[in-house]
Amino acid sequence: MSMQKLSYVPLEAVFMTALLVLPIVLSTSDELIPADKAQLNSWFDRNIGPLASREGTLNPALVEAEKNVTVVQVRADGTGDFKTITDAIKSVPHDNKHRVIISIGPGNYTEKVKIDRYTHFITLYGDPKNMPVMVFDGTAKQFGTLESGTLTVESDYFSAVNLKFVAVAMKIAGDYASFYNCRFHGFQDTLCDDRGKHFFKDCYVEGTVDFIFGSGQSLYVNSEIHVIPGDPMVLITAHSRSKHNEANGYVFVHCRVTGAGGTAYLSRSWFPYGRVIYAYSQLSEAVHPQGWSNNAQAHTNSTVYFGEYHNEGPGSDPTKRATFAKQLSDAEVKPFLSLAYIEGGKWLLPPATPRVK
């Protein structure tokens, strides 16, 4: 082909031809969570690699924050930089833009901790073999339900690794939060998964009434949801999605609902458009045959989004399920079965380790 002929080819046509012949490469965060639980960790490793291999796809603010990491030691016996978690948090500059890993020694830390909305990029890290315990006896009567947590996090890019939270355990209201190998021990209103995109992996949450509640857009993977026996009616989740076009909802994948009694409902209609999904999960005899509650609000039957997909166990039998819940098809569940649901490819990193410089 001569140069003269090339000069008559529109640039737009050349560009479109190139697009047609180039392969379409999807973000790895679009890879579906495997049905085989044995493949779960390899799936996670493929999708959530270290910072060095993903700088071009992560949020720029996160990339910059992870390039300058500070490690602070908290030890109850006074051998660290601080004796309390509260003092360690106070040491972080206002509007912080760099990752601060607060390495917490073993023991009980009886304090009510708040990380405000200006203190970003905080990681709380404990020893997996001797997990520190954050505990406080705050009650809803004293502080109100939303402010009674042992730990309240309002900032973005928070992470917790190998920690145990006790009592009215915590509230997470910041965006881009991750929890690895954490335990949440409480009774009613254990975990306020309030708002923002959140990821929970290898965690444990226990309680009785509404013990996971809020409007978070959250993905729970390989986690145990434990029903404390004794109540005549147990409500595991209460999601507060208020409009049909909101993207939020709780998704539980390869999780285990444990306990006994047959009194637990997977969720209730707290807000009219609440969204909760269980997929590839083990549902024990703790789950009531009906599975879901409309909270005596029949008008929400056509608006809530309560779904199940390929669950197993004695509590997963669909034959007596509430009519407003759905056994989801492959196409219906697909948007919720990848890290893309929480935009994980932009912000999620493997659990940090506190390497002291």
* Percent of residues in helices: 10-25%
Which residues form runs of ≥5 with pLDDT under 50?
A: 1-27
Alpha-carbon distance between the two ends? 61 Å
In DSSP terms (H or I, runs of 4 or more residues), the helix count works out at 8
- CATH homologous superfamily name of the domain at 29-56 and 186-344? Single-stranded right-handed beta-helix, Pectin lyase-like
User: Describe the biggest sheet?
Assistant: 11 strands, parallel
Give the second-level CATH assignment, the architecture of the domain at 29-56 and 186-344.
3 Solenoid
At the first level of CATH, the class of the domain at 29-56 and 186-344 is Mainly Beta
| Count of distinct strands | 28
Average pLDDT metric: 90
Using only CA atoms, what is the Rg? 23 Å
CATH fold category name of the domain at 29-56 and 186-344: Pectate Lyase C-like
Briefly note the structural class of the backbone.
Answer: alpha/beta
Query: Could you tell me the strand content as a percent range?
Result: 25-35%
Shape: globular
The main sheet orders its strands as: 1-2-5-8-11-14-17-20-24-27-28
Topology:
Layout lengths: L2 H4 L4 H11 L18 H8 L12 H7 L3 E5 L10 H6 L9 E5 L3 E3 L2 E3 L6 E5 L6 E3 L4 H4 L7 E3 L5 E3 L2 E3 L3 E3 L4 E4 L2 E3 L5 E3 L3 E5 L2 E4 L1 E6 L2 E5 L2 E4 L6 E6 L9 E5 L2 E3 L5 E2 L1 E2 L6 E5 L2 E2 L8 E2 L11 E5 L15 E3 L2 H4 L10 H4 L10
Parallel strand pairs: 1-2, 2-5, 3-6, 4-7, 5-8, 6-9, 7-10, 8-11, 9-12, 10-13, 11-14, 12-15, 13-16, 14-17, 15-18, 16-19, 17-20, 18-21, 19-22, 20-24, 21-25, 23-26, 24-27, 27-28
